[in-house]
Amino acid sequence: NFGEVRGNHFHSGLDFKTGGVEGKSVYAIADGFVSRVAVSEGGFGKAIYLEHPNGKTSVYAHLREFAPEIASYVKEQQYAKQSFEVNINPPAGKFAVKKGQLIAKSGNSGGSGGPHVHFEVRETIGQIPTNPLNHGFEVKDSKHPELQKLWIYSHSESGHVDGLIEEKGIKLNGKSGNYALATDTIRASGIISFGIAALDRFTSSRNVCGIYSMNVKVNGTTIHKQQIDEFPFSKKRMVNCHIDYEKRIANRHFVYRTRIAPGNKLDLYPTIKDGGTIHIENGKSYNVEVDVLDHSGNVSSISFVVIGQARQGAVLAAKEEVTDIFYPNALNSFTNNSLRLNIPNNCLYDTLKFKYDLKPPCKECVSAIHSIGKLSDTPLDRSMTVSIKLDNVTEATAAKAVMVSYDKRGKPVAEGGSAKWNWMTATTRSFGDYAVMLDSLAPALRAKNFKDQTSTAGIDTLKFHLEDNLAGVRFYTGTLNGKWVLLEFDPKNNLLYYVKDERFISGQNTIRITVKDKVGNVKEVSITVR
Ligand SMILES: [Zn+2]
């Protein structure tokens, strides 16, 4: 649903499942005209944008194909530009559409994890995505949001929550909107804030969706309010401070926080004194009421009491090793003999206890492994710059160098970058382990569903397997019988393909394909088929 937490962004529309298959008919929601058609390898894949007279634009993405007259227009443009990826704005009068007109067939193109249609309603001016449920679309929803856990965060040096100096999580029990804490009273002092792990579902789907709004009152006064009706794309990544990022990574809980982090520039919250925190004074008692709502108005609530009591006895938290403290509204940097790190202003959302560790190089590395921050538990809004010193490289081998980070399973993931002297520099938006490796292998490219020098009668799509070992594919181009031919690329399936058309003649056809990876390794294939 709209505003749902996805990997590093708010979801900008509604996803309609298509029963696990492609090829369902997609119709225009209202009168208008085709204002944009885009084809990209990742992202929205094949997508169509309709502009409507009421100032809104509707978007339909991950399509398999466009309606015939649009499809042939797109193909013309692809041949004119000699590119599979295109982004076209047809003139306003070119493709007028009526409400209910067939515009495309659904698919799984681009960065899609299964057949579905991604649907958006945007304000045409500024292309700001808005909640489609605010525009008269109804999706049955009688299920209340599910509340999983309450988090209470302590923000002052001498404060605590039930004796803990950072935070405490308390399981929530209940159903049909009525929830209660496993413990009834919480003791705390100093500045605290709250977080609720919650999710929502529509009536006829098991899919986990995001909540629509949350309201928190303390002794009858609102200390926090949030509601997601729209957000600009430029702030979509701030979902990482809207929720508790660390807990999303650790246990896939979406914890909606009352405290607004200093780097949080979202307009989803009315201005409230103290930014969603409260100061607990000793001897006083605080009644906290939390309401979580979905778009249909189903409410789930909890209430509890916080009693002000000074911290007593030993502190129940381990002392952490910290390399440096970094601040959100400042330029932060870290340098040693083999690493230079620059984190620009407005990159961090909050104050960070920065940790650094030097690890020995791996067998395939031409640098040490630098452990920068903890593995992906601190979100960054903008890119930081990482420069790593290379060991034992010549100018020629440095040209094949690729900076890598390591994913959760320890597998290297290319981060790109460029080498100058014996330093490699790249930009990245996540912390973790970084090193430099060499990629001297050309991409793998081979025919998949046919063989050289054979007949391909009965096959309408000629498929090739295309995969690079490390740096990634930068470029591909093909000719059929000496002329440029449209090859479609689906990187998530390592699939490069040609859909036979009138250019495939009877008799012998020669296809030549050239592919290049991001460090210049080239592979060429020439195949002749009937
Ligand atoms: Zn979607």
| Count of discrete structural domains | 4
The CATH C-level name of the largest domain is Mainly Beta
Q: In this structure, how is the largest beta sheet organized?
A: 11 strands, mixed
Spans of at least 5 consecutive residues with low confidence:
none
How much strand content do the residues show?
Answer: over 45%
CATH architectural designation of the largest domain:
Distorted Sandwich
The value of Rg in angstroms is 27 Å
CATH topology of the largest domain: Coagulation Factor XIII, Chain A, domain 1
Number of strands: 43
Tally the helices. 4
Overall 3D shape: globular
Proportion of residues in helical segments: under 10%
How many angstroms does the end-to-end distance come to?
48 Å
Estimate the mean pLDDT confidence: 94
Indicate the topology.
Layout: E1 5-6, E2 9-10, E3 14-17, E4 25-27, E5 32-39, E6 46-51, E7 56-66, H1 68-81, E8 86-88, E9 96-97, E10 102-106, E11 116-123, E12 128-130, E13 146-154, E14 160-161, E15 167-175, E16 178-181, E17 185-199, E18 213-218, E19 221-227, H2 239-242, H3 245-251, E20 255-257, E21 277-280, E22 285-293, E23 299-308, E24 324-326, E25 332-336, E26 339-343, E27 352-354, E28 356-359, E29 369-372, E30 379-389, H4 395-398, E31 401-406, E32 412-416, E33 418-420, E34 423-430, E35 432-438, E36 444-447, E37 461-467, E38 473-480, E39 483-484, E40 488-490, E41 495-499, E42 509-517, E43 522-529
Parallel strand pairs: 17-23
Antiparallel strand pairs: 1-2, 3-11, 4-10, 5-6, 5-8, 5-9, 6-7, 7-10, 7-11, 11-12, 13-15, 13-17, 14-17, 15-16, 17-20, 17-21, 18-19, 18-22, 22-23, 24-27, 25-26, 26-30, 28-29, 29-35, 30-34, 31-32, 31-35, 33-34, 36-37, 37-41, 38-39, 38-42, 40-41, 42-43
Bound molecules: zinc ion (ZN).
